[in-house]
Design brief:
The structure is a single chain. This protein has 239 residues and is α/β, with parallel strands linked by helices.
Length: 239
């Protein structure tokens, strides 16, 4: 069984980490089906299990909470010892956080409605079409920065249904997460028409988090890679 305690022995006295994530299955998700979770016992997923394993190996006192992306991201940007996962590492974000990882990789995928005949050879082929996305998401920001039209929601939950109903032309999501969200909305037959930009996902910590904490966390990552736990968690989720 790949189960990890959220309790550990603090090694930095009063230092405690406050770590946020969002509902983004299979990487991070509520294990009880709720929109929010107040502690790590209610949070599951590929990245979550790896983060919990890292925290346990590093013996770091912590709290894990599940919120919407904007809330967690802003806390990680603005409060010492706060972080968020799984966060896409980009050049523009590199200087905004201290990084632990990579925890997993993420293949950006464009989905079209069921029964589509759409053929896409490159991203430019979709210019002028309306995408479904969500606020604060790196994929949504990537499209907007390049002049693509994106209809943004507070989360990704409803976007598969919006695509099925024809409210948008396309939906940008992640290779594994897209089908999970669609199944939760009882949406079947969405067609992956183009994939691009395979990126790494990390735990992003506030810049005021002490360097020795970040070092200890990355050492924890190396421990679970060496003992096989990192790979075992990936295998559990089909990687």
């Amino acid at each position: 069984m790949l189960a990890f305690s959220v309790f550990s022995i603090p090694v930095w006295g009063s230092e405690k980490l406050y770590i946020y994530t969002e509902n983004f299955p299979p990487y991070n998700m509520s294990s009880t089906g709720l929109a929010f979770e107040h502690n790590g016992e209610g949070v599951d997923g590929l990245c979550t299990e790896r983060v919990k394993a890292i925290l346990k190996a590093a013996s770091v006192d912590h709290v894990i909470k599940l919120r919407n992306w904007d809330y967690g991201y802003n806390r990680a940007q603005n409060k010492k010892n706060h972080g968020i996962f799984c966060t896409t590492y980009t050049e523009s974000r590199a200087s905004q956080f201290k990084w632990v990882g990579p925890l997993a990789s993420n293949l950006w995928t464009i989905f079209a409605p069921p029964g589509t005949n759409l053929k896409i050879d490159k991203l430019e082929d979709t210019r002028g079409m309306l995408y479904a996305g969500y606020r604060g998401d790196v994929m949504t920001e990537y499209l907007k920065e390049r002049g693509y039209k994106v209809s943004e929601m507070e989360s990704d939950d409803l976007n598969p249904k919006r695509l099925e109903l024809g409210q948008v032309d396309l939906w940008i999501a992640e290779r594994l997460a897209g089908p999970f969200f669609a199944s939760q909305q009882n949406v079947e037959g969405l067609v992956p028409v183009f994939s691009f930009n395979n990126v790494d996902l990390y735990l992003a910590m506030n810049l005021d988090t002490p360097d020795d904490v970040i070092q200890k966390l990355n050492e924890g990552l190396e421990i679970i890679k060496k003992n096989g736990l990192y790979e075992a968690i990936g295998t559990k989720y089909g990687l």
